[in-house]
Batch of 3 targets.
Target 1
Amino acid sequence: MVRYVYDFAEGSRDMAGLLGGKGSNLAEMTRLGLPVPPGFTVTTEACRAYLDTGGEPAGMWQEVSAHLTAIETAAGRPLGQPEDPLLVSVRSGARFSMPGMMETILDIGLTDESVLGLAKVSGSERFAWDSYRRLVQMFGSTVMGVDSTHFEHALTALKELREVPDDVHLTADDLAGLVETYKELIRRETGEHFPQSPAEQLRRAVLAVFESWNGERARLYRRREHIADDLGTAVTVQRMVFGNLGSDSGSGVAFTRDPATGRPGMYGDYLPDAQGEDVVAGIRNTVPLTELERLDPASHTRLRAHMETLERHYRDLCDIEFTIERGTLWMLQTRVGKRTAEAAFAIAAALVDEGLITSDEALARVGGEQLARLMFPRFDTSGTGAPLARGIPASPGAAVGAAVFDSSSAVRRAAAGEKVVLVRQETTPDDLPGMLAAQAVLTSRGGKTSHAAVVARGMGKVCVCGAEALTVDTGARRCTAPDGTVVEEGTVVSVDGSAGAVYAGTVPLTDSAVIRYLEDGSTDEDANGLVAAVARALYRADTVRRLEVRANADTPEDAARARRFGAQGVGLCRTEHMFLGERRKLVEAMILARDEAERDQALGALLPLQRQDFIGILEAMDGLPVTIRLIDPPLHEFLPDRTELAVRIATAEARGAVPGPHDADLLDAVNRTHEENPMLGLRGVRLGLVVPGLVAMQVRAVAEAVVERTKAGGSPQAEIMVPLVGAVEELRIEREEVERVLAEVSRESGVPVRCPVGTMIELPRAALTAGRIAAEAEFFSFGTNDLTQTTWGFSRDDVEAAFFSAYLDKGIFATSPFETLDRDGVGRLVRIAVDEGRAARPGLKIGVCGEHGGDPDSVHFFHSAGLDYVSCSPFRVPVARLEAGRAALEGTDVSDSR
Ligand code: ADP
Ligand code: MG
Ligand code: MG
């Protein structure tokens, strides 16, 4: 029989799929003997069944009742009993934490009757009414669907009437009156009464959590985080403990290390006389945990001990929620905490030093995208004045953008291509779309655990929160700094999430410490040991990885930088980039040539230029392979724009002038080479086969560069790569020409030039006939950009802007196939080509040179497909090294190695 409910004592953290993150970790804490209020969890399976059928699965309520009875028996009183009510919370918790998505309801079991009982047994009328008004408010908005701003307005109005700054100053009578106002509000808005049956409250709350799985915000978050829509959420029901029982009570959140920098030490916020959600809501100002040490040293000591237990048990940074009820500490939640990229590296290294994890585990816990973030530039504030304001550095990085004061403006302006900074007093889940659209989030309230901070960190967005000196007026769409500077909507500001400062205008950028280290090994200015931690992760990755990492580089400078970043060669050198700028004229002359002599002259002028380029790159990569791709793009890319040219000629004619003969020739050539679908036209190997002399010139340039480098005592390792081959015959013919020229140059120079000749695999036909192509190819390199275009039938430049966002919305793909390799389609072709290519030519060297070569997920695929190397842009080389290492660990027991 299927079970739908598990007591905390029956679960464990391995059951997150079934009990959700929150439920399974509560179970784990219970098993560890930490003080967790008793409770049980209704499984994600029950939620899935409910969402599939629209009704709760058979037997679920009986199970819930049985487990509730157990809690009631232990507590010695039933849920909502009038004289002495047991109260519970109903909490959502999916497999993956989804901050702020699903609302928790506290104080279930309170009614008009039991609130009086609670007042009596607790000895505090104020507390009882405060709890009741929270329940009516949360239940009203979450379960009954009343717009929560109605409740907030009523509360604000009451506080204004009583002239008190916050809700702790409201009296029991005030709160009792507020409950009446709230209940009336619910009647007005829904036509229903707030339910006075504790059992009905519980039942409706549980179902509301199920329903909330499909709420709009939850879906948006899942789409962005690539969380499957069919996982469902679990629901945890737990006996209430009360942080709002007076000044010897309170609630807090804490991290076992600083989630922004990774520095060790308890880190968190505490709010006396408050229920849990007050801490993160930012309605009152929290105090740091050091203050708790003063207020309640005994609880602080216990908290520290529990946090140590948790960190040693989870062997990672944990974040926790706790409540102190009249001096008794209760643990309400834990999980492995989110952290910034910086903290991820620092913590991984620290845990290795503390002997808690192995270096392989440390490597598994950091990611390529995090590393990429650490390579972003930082602000150079040396020439900048004082900041407008300072706040808490909640999520690091440097961002510049126009200030906007609400989510929809952020979305609108960002969609129009503008960079924006979302400025709010504090954020709520309603701001999520705007946070997604913004470069940075800036708030005037809230601490490191506020909604803005937690969500921004999760997204890798720059965030400064709690910049209290700023007066944010969202209604007027402006904020004011203490020095009187007014930032209107649209004003550019610079937000430094690492230092926690915001500046007016655009602050210039400078290299990050990680980039400086990668460039020249320098590790100064590194207060947190971040650079050392990154170096250790990369070292470990280099030790365990099987994939080699090369770079795509077209200039000696790029090649040199790539080498400093750890590239083991150039996987793609695009020769056509050497035809642009000044040299375009020479290409033009070649295209316009009327006879062989003119063409040879033009090619002859290009030859020494190309040779020089290759000499530079081969020198920068001396001793390492450099894969040079023969010309790829269609020729008209080197000619002037057709319309521009036609207009120029037409205006000349209109003025009565005779257009220059050159222009006329050019227009002729442009018309001749014009293609409707250039991506599928005369390009790649086709050009080499049809345009005489072009390939010979390029190969000669390569060969002569090899000769020159050899004579200079170098060790040039050039490889020649033919693009866009679809049939082995194309490659055979082209290759004969290549070999002929290589032999010619060898003869002339007396230096034997031996360059492997290979091909790109970037057409489905090439992949499907790879066995035959391998007979003529000494290596393969997947051009996954073109292979994606031709497999999907997408012209990248046309489709991305036109409909990719709609496709992402509709869930047709979770990420663009141009960013992350489409394993099912393109990946299948890759596997076929690898298998058949190697079957035909054992030991065939195979790499990838599309942009996917630097994408973490794709790197893992290429590793599993058995490729020899990935090649990516120089700045992605460290990312690829790290991910290649992580890919090699996949499926191994990382806790077991040294
Ligand atoms: P979220 O997922 O948004 O953090 P939680 O389920 O953790 O939601 O609950 C919101 C707040 O209510 C948290 O601060 C939590 O600690 C508090 N809370 C939840 N259950 C209880 C309980 N049984 N007693 C006291 N506080 C609770
Ligand atoms: Mg929580
Ligand atoms: Mg291509």
Target 2
Amino acid sequence: MTDLNHLSPNSPILLTASLHVDEARKAIASLVTDLLQESRSMNNASDVESVSLDQAINRILAEDLLSPIDVPAADNSAMDGFAFNGDYLDGSDNIVILKVLGTAYAGNPFIGSIDMGECVKIMTGALMPHGCDTVIPQEFTESVDGSSVGFKKNQVKRGENRRLRSEDLQSGKAAIKAGCLLRPSDLGLAASLGIATLQVHRKLKVAILSSGDELRPLGQALDAGSIYDSNRYSLTGLLNRLNLEIIDCGIVRDDPASLKAAFIDAASKADVLISSGGVSVGEADFTKQIMQELGDVGFWKIAMRPGRPMAFGILKSVNDSGRKALFFGLPGNPVAVMVTFYQFVRSALLQLNGASQTEAPLTQAVAEEAIRKKPGRTEFQRAILGRGADGKPTVKLTGSQGAGILRSMSEANCFVILSHDQGNVAAGDWVDVALFNGLL
Ligand code: AMP
Ligand code: MG
């Protein structure tokens, strides 16, 4: 198992320093790898199940999807026009006149074959008639006497406007690779091969809980100093993007016995436990004490903003699926919860569930205004991606960037990610951007 202690603030190395975001990500990925290996060697129960296409969105494909057919199944036309034998084509601007023998429709092919001097009117998707290898698009032809068409020989090259059998997919080859997070296009692709069910990894079970004496459930009046628990709702929304099973463990009070009982309960049911709150300075000692008994958990001070304190590790008890649960103790601040989920939890969940690609895509845009940034920490600022007058992508921050200001997330459509070593950004500089769409 990966030793989390050397990454824990208890260790001498980190007493003064904070953990770089990339180091934290690496430590998480390597622990997930260990956990997967361990659970594979301990238990042979398959974690694969069949689902119909309409249930498969955002699930992770467990085995290569082999195409049972060639796509296209036969040569066909890519254009509306006339199919003929390309022997005539010599690149000259001479005109050739061909007699039209009939029409080939998609789903209703032309029966018969074509000789020199003949052609068939053809629609997009219609099978290429025997003897034809080229299609001249309709717009390059002129009708001659109502029964023939004429066109210049240099207007098409031999073989053009024809889709070849199996040019898209060959029978027996992988149409979609194992580990793919299934998107709408993948479901359409499977359907185009006549495949109605897919083999996917079983849904991960993810338990969530909020910790804090000040938290109240929705529907209850707020007394002095209390606030509504919003983190479970943003976490539920984030998790729902991944089509997994959520186990809601509610609000837990800041008292050791309740927290311990909640963690033990969650660990017995779930593959992953995500809590929020209770890991910041002051409270961490309290959670730490419980975690020492229940698992191997590092309490990290991460060089990032927002989201500095975070706990991560494994819980010792084994759940229903024969696996130890991963534990993420996220900070309590509502924006920090979303940022740490994006940066650490999402990729770990994907990796644990067999995905081959776990990184979210990044792009770049021009900062519309100067952004203050201290080197030595990674920052995730909330922003709106737009387009400048010159057509270049631009980003504008969404007002106040405090870790508790959830409105900054709600109004934003992306993070501007300022890397660890980066300093102040000047207006007009290019910055890294992660779009929320589909992720958060
Ligand atoms: P903590 O990490 O527990 O010190 O919490 C940091 C801040 O986040 C405090 O202002 C908490 O009141 C707030 N907070 C913690 N948990 C939640 C939650 N579930 N929903 C909304 N705010 C929270
Ligand atoms: Mg708290």
Target 3
Amino acid sequence: MNTPTLFVVATPIGNLQDMSTRAIETLQQVDLIAAEDTRHSAPLMQHFAITTPMMAVHDHNERQRSQAIVTRLQQGQSVALISDAGTPLISDPGYHLVSAVREAGFKVVPIAGPSALIAALSVAGVATDKFTFMGFLPAKSSHRCQVLQGLQEAVYTHVFYESPHRIMGSVADMLKVLGGERHLVVARELTKTYETVHSGTIAEIQTWLTADSNQQRGEFVLILAAAPVAEKAAMDAATDKMLLVLLEQLPIKKAAAVAAKLTPHKKQALYDRALMLQGK
Ligand code: SAM
């Protein structure tokens, strides 16, 4: 390793055979491995006979450790960053470190490999030409519903990470906010023994999860398809009709406010729509 470099190394999300040769060689050759949790990564190191010293770099010490790692690079050493699973920085620590190293003028090289987000998208069978990765939904139901409200008319696929503690709550909130008909894919325990990829409407997914508590265990990626165009058009037609009736009796602002209480649409969007309906 001639040029001091920070390698950002993807590791398996379950199946150790997904570890690339390049990842193994890099971890063997660097001077230091910055790991999210050194105890968690110990079995991986053992399996691939990697004896490189490790340093813990996690959410709580990342800024301080970034400086120590920049110092190592200044001394001519190379460092690898790994997280507990998958690609570092994807819902994992590393952003502060990578930006500090880049700012200090050192090379940052990706050793590409597994990520649950991409693995799930690759088998979900939903449109992947454009998608939005949302990370984890908020833990609190009220905040979660707020986020989901913004997706009522989503024109792209949305991808979420989810934990076993919150899977039922999140699906229940999706049902509440988005209705039962939207297409949802659950990608669970990818690359592991109990790997399951199951799709259906939100209502069907809730029934399926409720019927078998084993399906509520493990690690999840949720893939929410875009709102169906036909459904959206039908909803728009119904909303237009409602707005036209309200506009016969009420000023435009009031009509939009009443319609906002009766439909999932935002007041401003309804106001703009009412203006258009009035030909203004
Ligand atoms: N950096 C990782 C990556 O590239 O996928 C993600 C880290 S994030 C802290 C952990 C979350 O990723 C889990 O809670 C789960 O939502 C998702 N995840 C990780 N491994 C998974 C797997 N094997 N199957 C399904 N989801 C997984």
